[in-house]
């Protein structure tokens, strides 16, 4: 069967696709960073507790208070890219979401479970000593499962050739396990999350150190080490991921292929610098090199999708039926929303500082 007959006709767009593409990249960048902070610090806190046989550790206690917030931000900043990716690739994403519908819908349940457990872990940190490790362990496992389902859906959407499996198993229980890119891609994301989690720990303790807490210094290097070693491992997963991609995706003779090569080269150089900086304990330099690395990687991820879908679809095929006013209104609310979130965070930060100064 020709898989292209399975691809639904796309909806029209109110403005040119470029606008949605920029919004998708920017909001996905925010989502991925927040997800990394949430998942990475969750995993590191778990390891810290596990090594201490479940007894309280300074680090896991500090992280317990922040995990529910990180989760809330990750979810909220996931909704925006979900909207934009549906606008641009709805005809692919809806199809793959239906094929794995049972798993896809379970993301909501997993989120609720993860959220509740993170809250209980925080509120009962001292009183619920024996269950501490389990609470955090299950919360993090639910997050890992969500990430795995995300990788399944975002790889299956770009492979209409595997959709035909539906006719043998019309149950909404299909995953994309046969795709050679799935596991390296997933491991690449998770290891990056661990690295960024380590860096956020380093940043947090660096802040406390600058405010006079001498004991925070050793935790700065601890966080940096997590970043550095996880990123070294991630170079391995990255090359494995690249090697698993079909040749036509990164064919240097195509525009997409040469852009992928260029961006990858930039990411490898920046990533290399970030490792050196982190192992030397230079927190801010690590941050300044890793943020553009993540951004460039998100561009590569998008280009990979463009290349995969080329036989079926190109964004420039989308028909524009101009309707500027709803889009302008949306942009005003979007920017206003971001400003409000920024203002709220500043207020929270100031309140925290005042409390610390008073105590
Ligand atoms: C615990 C919570 C979450 C985790 C661990 C997580 C993790 C991930 C990961 C690993 C990816 C990349 C997948 C890949 O490309 O292989 C991803 C992408 C994405 N996530 Fe999340 N996510 C979470 C929650 C959410 C939620 C709640 C939403 C939406 C409401 C969301 C929306 C998205 C979207 C739209 C993308 C990809 C967009 C694109 O393909 O351009 N995420 N997420």
Structural account:
There is one protein chain. With 359 residues, this protein is an all-alpha fold. 75% of the residues lie in helices and 0% in strands. The protein has eleven helices and no strands. Helix 4 runs antiparallel to helix 5. The longest helix has 35 residues. It is globular, with a radius of gyration of 22 Å. Protoporphyrin IX containing FE binds next to helix 1, helix 3, helix 4, helix 5 and helix 7.
Whole-number radius of gyration?
22 Å
Mean pLDDT: 96
The assigned structural class equals mainly alpha
Question: What are the low-pLDDT stretches, counting only 5+ consecutive residues below 50?
Answer: none
Number of helices: 11
Main pleated sheet: none
Number of strands: 0
Backbone shape: globular
Q: Name the helicity range.
A: over 70%
Q: Strand share of the residues?
A: under 5%
N-to-C terminal Cα separation, in Å? 70 Å
What's the oligomerization state? single chain
- Topology as H/E string? HHHHHHHHHHH
Catalogue the ligands. protoporphyrin IX containing FE
């Amino acid at each position: 069967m020709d898989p292209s007959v399975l691809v639904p006709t796309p909806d029209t767009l109110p403005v040119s696709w470029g606008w949605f593409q920029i919004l998708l990249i920017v909001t996905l960048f925010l989502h991925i960073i927040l997800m990394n902070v949430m998942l990475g610090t969750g995993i590191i806190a778990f390891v810290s507790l596990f090594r201490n046989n479940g007894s309280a550790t300074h680090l896991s206690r500090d992280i317990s208070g922040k995990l529910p917030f990180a989760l809330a931000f990750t979810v909220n900043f996931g909704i925006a890219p979900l909207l934009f990716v549906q606008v641009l690739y709805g005809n692919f994403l809806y199809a793959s979401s239906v094929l794995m519908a049972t798993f896809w819908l379970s993301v909501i349940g997993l989120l609720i479970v993860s959220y509740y457990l993170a809250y209980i872990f925080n509120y009962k940190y001292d009183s619920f000593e024996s269950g501490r490790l389990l609470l955090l362990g299950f919360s993090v496992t639910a997050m890992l499962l969500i990430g795995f389902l995300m990788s399944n859906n975002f790889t299956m959407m770009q492979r209409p050739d595997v959709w035909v499996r539906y006719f043998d198993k019309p149950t909404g229980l299909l995953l994309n396990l046969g795709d050679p890119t799935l596991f390296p891609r997933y491991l690449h994301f998770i290891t990056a999350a661990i690295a960024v989690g380590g860096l956020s720990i380093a940043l947090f303790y660096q802040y406390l150190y600058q405010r006079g807490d001498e004991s925070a210094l050793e935790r700065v290097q601890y966080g940096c080490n997590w970043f550095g070693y996880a990123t070294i491992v991630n170079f391995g997963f990255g090359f494995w991921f690249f090697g698993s991609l079909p040749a036509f995706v990164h064919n240097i003779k195509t525009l997409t292929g040469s852009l992928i090569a260029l961006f990858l080269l930039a990411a490898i150089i920046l990533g290399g610098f970030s490792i050196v900086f982190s192992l030397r304990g230079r927190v801010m330099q690590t941050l300044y090199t890793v943020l553009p690395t993540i951004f460039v990687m998100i561009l590569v991820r998008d280009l990979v999708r463009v290349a995969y879908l080329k036989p079926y679809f190109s964004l420039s095929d989308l028909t524009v039926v101009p309707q500027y006013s709803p889009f302008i209104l949306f942009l005003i609310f979007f920017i206003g929303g971001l400003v409000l979130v920024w203002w709220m965070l500043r207020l929270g930060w100031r309140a925290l500082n005042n409390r610390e100064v008073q105590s």
